[in-house]
Amino acid sequence: MDKPKKSVRRKTSGVTIDEVAALAGVSPMTVSRAINQGKVRDVTRERVMRAVRELGYTPNLAASSLAAAQHTRIALIYTNPSGAYLRELLVGLLRVASNAAIQLVIHYWDNFDPEAERNAARALAGRVDGVILPPPLCESQAAVTELVSAGIPVVAIASGHLRDDLSCVRIDDFHAGKEMAEHLIQHGHRRIGFICGRSDLSASARRYDGFVTALQEAGLQVEPGLVEQGDYTYRSGLAATEKLLSQRRPPTAIFASNDDMAAAAISVAHRRGLEVPRDLSVVGFDDTSAATTVWPELTTLHQPIAAMADAAIDILLRTIRRKGDDTRVLTDHVMPHRLVVRDSVARPPKR
Questions:
Q1: Model confidence over 172-213: pLDDT tens digits?
Q2: Is the predicted pLDDT of residue 216 greater than 70, yes or no?
Q3: I need a labelling partner for 221 at 20 to 30 A (CA). Which of 9, 14, 52, 345 fits?
Q4: Residue 305 has pLDDT above 50, yes or no
Q5: Cα-to-chain-centroid distance, residue 294
Q6: Concatenated DSSP letters of 292-347
Q7: What is the mean pLDDT of residues 334-350?
């Protein structure tokens, strides 16, 4: 009587990444980068893939995906004068970076001239896979040119318009500025002061253009004495508001190009014994924490800063994944804005 045949189970011991690394003469991290299309030299990648084929190594897809994300380094370079804006941006970036398991590195370029920006960008290019540039660096031609020429994907946040050399995440600053000015006009204001943002940023110019268009469509003139230059800092808002309220016929409302400068305008009004909004209406832009830490709370234009950071990282990751493609795809992602009505606007006082 024949004995029943035993089922034969072939014993296999899976090949590990350490074995592949040993055969290729590289580190396990280099093997991971080579397999996941990370930054390694072509000759190294070829040696690793030859070892993979020879050993029959099959990577764990879940682990590979995680390793690929962990080896993706994205840099945020900032020199933003608005602390409130920067906090909103960092909250968005840190949340997304944590969820995507990417490495976020932060660089502060303090008062760099164009040559210093060029040198810093050149040094950074070899250490990261992508770069996010918030204002004002989103329009640094020196940094952008250096990074793009090095093949590093770059996304600009809050640039005023699409560029032909990098992707953008922004709002429609023109229509946002126009909508805010129309809100003041609808409340009966005819003498509206305007505090401009930085003169070297296209977004600042677009907000002012929207303001001017709203006045012209309402049959109002833009008086040069009612327009003051700021630079998005609280201190510049103080100086600009002092000039506006020192006019022989001061404005009944002030539209500041960001919340920091609008908060400064409220401070100057209080110091002069004016009540906001009974004697003077004040509006801001961005809807940062500064808008709700002043009294009265600011009517402002909500810019989804945290969501813009989320979109910027998404664009970078998609660009990095298709880095081997010959086709260069640039994205102009325009996000919706909205008017946030709070307590800082009323009808103008009767003179």
A1: 999 999 999 999 999 999 999 999 999 989 999 999 999 999
A2: yes
A3: 345
A4: yes
A5: 25
A6: GSSSSPPBEEE--HHHHHHHHHHHHHHHHHTTT-S-----EEEPP-EEE--SS--P
A7: 95
| The pLDDT value given to residue 317 | 86
41 secondary structure, DSSP code: -
Q: Which tokens hold the place of 252?
A: 């009944």
Cα–chain center distance at 243: 32
Instruction: Give per-residue burial for 184-204: e unless 16+ CB within 10 Å, then b.
Output: bbebebebbbbbbbbeebbbb
In DSSP terms, which residues pair with 157 in a beta bridge? Answer: 169
Contact 234, 56 (CB under 8 A): no
Per the document, the length of the chain is: 351
Residue carrying the six token digits 């429609």:
172
d(CA 129, CA 57): 27
Of 305, 348, 28, the C-alpha closest to 185 is: 348
15-41 pLDDT, tens digit per residue, is 777 788 888 888 877 777 777 656 677
Residue 19 to residue 52: CA distance in whole angstroms: 9
